[in-house]
Amino acid sequence: MDATGKIKVMAEKFSEKYGIKATGEKMSASNQEEILVREAQARNVRRDVFNMSNLPDVTAQFLPQGIAVSWMPPDLKSQTPQVYQHPAITSLNPWVWVYNPGVYGDTCPINNMWALTDKKWKGKISIPDPLLRNETLFWFNQIADNADDKMKAAYQEYFGKPLETKQPSATAEWAKRFAENNIKVQKSDTDVGPIVGASTSEHPVIGFVSSAIFTHAKNENFKMAICKEMMPWIGQLTPRVAVIASGTKSPNAAKLFVHYMMSAEGMEPQMEDGKISTNNNAVMPENEASGVSKLMDKMYVNNSETTPDDFKKLQFWRDLWTVGSR
């Protein structure tokens, strides 16, 4: 199971390669979590492998409680940086700020995350609902814990004065102001992309989407480009972790599928949508539509060591967003 439909292609290729029947199922992170827990409680495991984007939930709940296990293929350790081995991170999913280049050309009209809180952009920003996508709120906490100084510097760069706030961090102040700026939330980024593509100079829209939406833009013929000048970051890298349901009836087949996902060959279908394989031998396909692999130095990179705090502080960020967006 995975949040991308490419898991179906991966399962088909796996079956062709090994002669073992596998069925890929696209499902949101929250639904994956619910199924993993319910099947464990019922002791009736029907889904064996999950490629999950909510890393804090995995490390804080599912692994310690014995609901799932993480297995790193021993023969792939030399191809995978150690930071991605415990737990086994299969890939990094880029999420980026985007605009319509048909309106603004090669330069995004926003070059600072604090501009997203400016009243002149009120009601002109579209993102997936953070209350439906914990990864967004986890990102806020990641920044607050590990890079809050960069948010303070970005504030001074944009407003020309030091930040004064009663919030516990500059990031919390940003999130509060961002939520208050009449953000247009959508169910998912597949809804956000076309909205950005349909924006005009009279009604411009800045969006937040995964790199996979660039494939949609290409196929559906709407214009969209990354805000390459955005500071402190153009977006986030969301880690995806492979977990095996503890009660699986096919543990060896499950391990083989995890091995396949973590190989350069197995992750190729997802790399076509811009996802970054953690396998050093994997090469990004030339036909990948977003070009995000060339902008990795401008992305926020998740710090796995602080993910327990992301889980611990989740309710704080949910409350901050809920109150601010009313």
What does this structure look like?
- 38% of the residues lie in helices and 14% in strands.
- It has 13 helices and ten strands.
- Helix 5 packs antiparallel against helix 7, helix 7 (170-180) runs parallel beside helix 13 and helix 8 (189-197) crosses helix 9.
- The protein starts with 5 loop residues before the first helix and ends with a helix.
Structural features:
326 residues; ten-stranded mixed β-sheet
In short:
The protein is built from 13 helices and 10 strands. The chain has helices at residues 6-18, 29-41, 55-62, 101-104, 134-146, 148-159, 170-180, 189-197, 213-220, 251-261, 268-271, 307-312, 314-324, and strands spanning 49-52, 68-69, 89-99, 125-128, 184-186, 206-210, 225-226, 235-245, 276-277, 299-301.
Low-confidence stretches: none
Question: If you compute it from the alpha carbons, what radius of gyration comes out, rounded to the nearest whole angstrom?
Answer: 20 Å
Instruction: Quote the average pLDDT.
Output: 96
Name the helicity range: 25-40%
Provide the structure class. alpha/beta
- Beta-strand percent range: 5-15%
Query: Helix-strand pattern, N to C?
Result: HHEHEEHEHHHEHEHEEHHEEHH
Mass-distribution shape: globular
Largest beta-sheet characterization: 10 strands, mixed
Number of strands: 10
Distance between the termini: 34 Å
Structure annotation, total helices: 13
